[in-house]
Each structure stands twice: as C-alpha cells, then as structure tokens.
Amino acid sequence: MASRSRRWWWGLLAAGALLRAALIYFPRPVDDDTDVYAELGRNLLHHGTYGWMDDGVVSPSLFRLPGYPVVLALLGEKIPLVLAFQALADLFGCVLLALAVRRVAGERAALWTLALATTCLFTSIYDASAMTESLSLFAVAAAIWAAGEFLATGDSLTGRLPAKRLLPLAAAAALAMLLRPDGVLVLFASVAALAWHGVQRAGWRRAGLVSSLFAAMACLPLAPWTIRNALVFHVFQPLAPRHVNDPGERVNLGFYRWLRTWSTEFETTGAVYWKVGAEPISMADLSSRAFDSPAQRARTTALIERYNQRRDIDAALDDDFGALSEQRVRAHPLRYYLELPLLRVGDMLLRPRVDGTYLPAAWSKTRGEPVEEAEWIGLGLLNLFYVAAALAGAWRGKIPAAAFMGTYLILRCMVLGGMENPEPRYTLELYPILLACAGVGLGGTSRRAG
Questions:
Q1: Residue 399 and residue 103: Cα distance in Å, rounded?
Q2: How far apart are CA 412 and CA 390, in angstroms?
Q3: N or C: less crowded end of the chain, CB within 10 Å?
C-alpha cells in the first residue's frame, strides 16, 4: 500500500472513531432490549442460569440468544466499555469491507468504501446503543470479507477439504447466529455461495462436501445452546423463537396474521403493534387497507373494541382476528403474498432512517418544526444516496463475494416482507452490502460482466 493511500486509510479510520466517540458521548434513546440482555447475562454469570429473576428465583428462558448477553456479562455491564468495544468492532468491520472491495475493484473503490462505511451515520449510531445491531453488522461485513478471501483462490474448492480456510467464514456465520435468529441468513447465503462456486469449479460432489463442512463448523458453537434447550425445555431450538416467546407461552398468531394483511409502514408498528397489552388501539390509526368493505370495517371495529375493553388479546379474540385474516387472504392472495411484502420492504429500506435519533418516525409529526423537517428530509436523501450509489456499483459488476451478497439480500428481503411489524432497523444488516456496492459505484472505473 502506497504511503499516500495508507494515510487516507488511517485518516478515514480516525474520522470514523471521532464520529463514534461523539455519538457515544451524546446520549441516544434507550431501548428496553438493553435491560433484557443485561439481566439474562447477569443471571447467567452470577447464578448459573440463563433466565429471568422472579421473587429471588431465576427461571430459565430461551427467547433471546445468548451471544449479546454474554458479551454484556463479560464486560461487567459497563455500558461505556460495551459501546467502545462495539465501536472498535464496527471500525474493524469497515476495514474488512474495504479490503474485500480492494481485492476485486482496486484501491480507489476500497477508499470510497472505507469512507462511506466509517462515516455512515445509520450504522455508527448503533455503536452508541447497547443492542445487537452493531455486532451483527460486523458479522455480515466479516462474512463478506471471508467469503471473498476464500473464493478468490482458484484451488480453494479442490484438493484437501479446506477446514482452516473456511474458519473465518464459519466464525462470522456463528457470531451472526449467536446474536440474532436472523443471523442464520449468513449461514444460508454462505452455503449458497460455496455451492454455486463449488459446482462451477469442482462439481456437485465436491461442492456438497465443502458446503457441508462449512455448515458443520458454523453450527458447532450453537450446539451447547441447542442441547441446553433440549434438556431444560424438551424442544429443538437451535436459535430463538421468531415471536420472542418461551415454550408454553401463547403467541397471538391470528392477530399477527391480520396485521400482515394490511400493515406496511413503520407508523403502524408504533400505533398498533407496540400498543398490544398496554394501550388502547384507535381505529383512526388503521390504514384504509385494513378493510375491503363496510361490513369488514364493522367487523374490524368490533374486534378492536373488544381489545380496548381489556387491552389484551385472549385466545378467543386471537382466533377471531385469525378468521378475519383468513377471509382477507383468500379474497386477495396476490396482495398478501406479493404486493404487501414488497411495500413493507420498500418502506423499511427507503424511508428516512430516524431510528436511533429523537426525530419522529412520521413526516407529519415534523410539521411546524423547521429544524426537524430539515433533518428528516436530509436523512431521507442520505439514505437514497446510499441506495443509488449501491445500484451503480452493482451495475459495474466489480463487487466482492457477489454470490454471497446477492443471496443474503434476497433472503433478507423475503424475511422482512413477511413481518407484521415493519421497522427500518431490520434492514440495517443490508448496509454492509449497500456500502460495499456504493464504494464500487463511486470509485470504480469500468464495468465487468457477471
């Protein structure tokens, strides 16, 4: 690396460190998940049981994966230390992302990638929050680098089984899965990339062997957690339940399915989803997509009124919401399975990313506040800039670990499209892909097919 280029690398890392230090210094909104992770880690460390404290007794739980609670426990629940650790991991992930781009697109594209990654407000703001997002971003960036490094060598899929060379990619996938259940998408995307390149270079049999070896290595760290859940709860649960529930706890599946028949915006998550069990729900907060006829509107109103009487959803009410959702799905299957998922993903990916800030989620709530309006619009334009630059980079074609990133992008959008509670932060793990492609789009010089 030339001396001038090296100075740019160190300068960009210093700028990224200053940004993260400023974000950590100025307090961010607190999320309830932080207290949940802290208690789980504390009880594991001090009582030997991964669970909740109730009347002096710790009851085991499995609704959260152990990765982040263990990190908090090992760092003594000292939040400033946790945030500094996250910031360092994030900066390391930025470097790995830039190295992955440099391998395929050159030094200029790598510098652009590093500049975008180190100064990205949308990702770095989570370094200042004790939540899983920051380390999850690092895991995805590390997987992109590791996949690119492994697949760059022509003989990586031939000869002896490459266990040592697969270790970095397996470690990245394992970390992603230990942090969040959707981290399993890193595993799936890695297997797909290994299989794709393996078939092309060495045939089906060899591709299957390498992919299976990688999957076994990546899943091995989850074995103690899976065995523990089988012994304690008598269930096979290698990750965490989608609806964040322990075995035996009832889930409002009918209500959630009803939400998926019309909910597409983040505002719905705050106005309806988050209120369940605590606050009344207003019919005014329901979108016009929530009913297809006056009769259906009357039926929906009756169900909402039943909820508001107790501010809770019992089994009977949940069944009624489920019956209403079934009627709506049968009447409009294309809307449920295609149109609404696309709208949800579009809303999560393209709306101004105000999560982690004190700005309101809805544009209408900034009216009359010129500063907030300007900030809201600015964040929206910045987000669109990243997306447009990423599309330009994808068009150029010189992107690292393309099979991995493409598969991960598709899988994650499929998962996000099926959620009843759209939140922009659920697209955050796509940002390493956007930043890598954007670096190529801004710093690349030519287009390569493929």
A1: 9
A2: 17
A3: C
